Amino acid sequence: MADERREEHRCEVRGRIQKTIYPGDRVVVEDEMIEELLPRDNLLSRPRVANISAVNIMLSVERPEIDFQLLDRFLLLVEAEGFRPVIFINKIDLDRDFLSREEEKISAYREAGYSLYTFSVREKENLDSVRQSFQRGINVMAGPSGVGKSALINELVPDANLELGEISEKLKRGKHTTRQVKLLALPEGGWVADSPGFTSLSLEHLDSGEVRFCFPEFDEYAANCHFSSCTHSHEPDCGVKKAVTEENINEFRYESYLRLLELVKEQGGPDYD
Fold first, then answer.
1. How many H-runs (helices) and E-runs (strands) does the chain carry?
2. Same-domain status, 147 and 252
3. Mean pLDDT along residues 117-128
4. Run of H or E including 129
5. Which of 14, 202, 203, 265 stands the most exposed, by the fewest C-beta atoms within 10 Å?
6. CATH number at residue 172
7. What is d(CA 240, CA 213) in angstroms, rounded to the nearest whole number?
8. Helices 68-80 & 251-267, crossing angle to 10 degrees?
């Protein structure tokens, strides 16, 4: 653990709280024993990190190739827990046409209210803006394996020395290198939490009624729906569907919403009533 001066200490955990303590928790220590768990501001469940200030979802342009449907699944899960994530896209050096080719999609995320950064860790391109985006609290890094989370953290934290994974030539995706959540002190203040990568994200704990609240660009137009319980899928007089027709909501994001809504109905909890 680390104290308020960010100095690290090796401590034991009192048995009664061993199973309830997570990275980021604030605790009371006596004689190198963690005796008490203090109240949390929040708890992110996937990965388990307490008292976080920001969730940074990171993908890469290539190796592994960007998957916007996977990004939207990450966004859904983080939004469902009450956080507004930040989007990082690494490896722009591998495809210089990417930003112009995907300009509409990138703009759609920014218009939805997400901060989105494009950069290259390898070429040290646009890293200053990424560095400045980190908050002084706990910043969680999440995303698929191989997108460069550990490489970015090594740039942000000079003595981090995190292991860098190789890309499988057969599968074209990264191999897991992070096995557990690690909190590392940022030189400018705050912390970054390196978390295990994910290749799939379960929706089993969600119910379909939550999904419509996890697309922030819908908020303005949902007030115009005839039904207060409108799912923005099949109902008449839907303000969100009208906004899509009038190109006030990006169509690809709306189609992604419909796919995720159906997935949650199939895999998740009970339908909204």
1. 9, 11
2. no
3. 97
4. helix 127-133
5. 202
6. 3.40.50.300
7. 12
8. 60
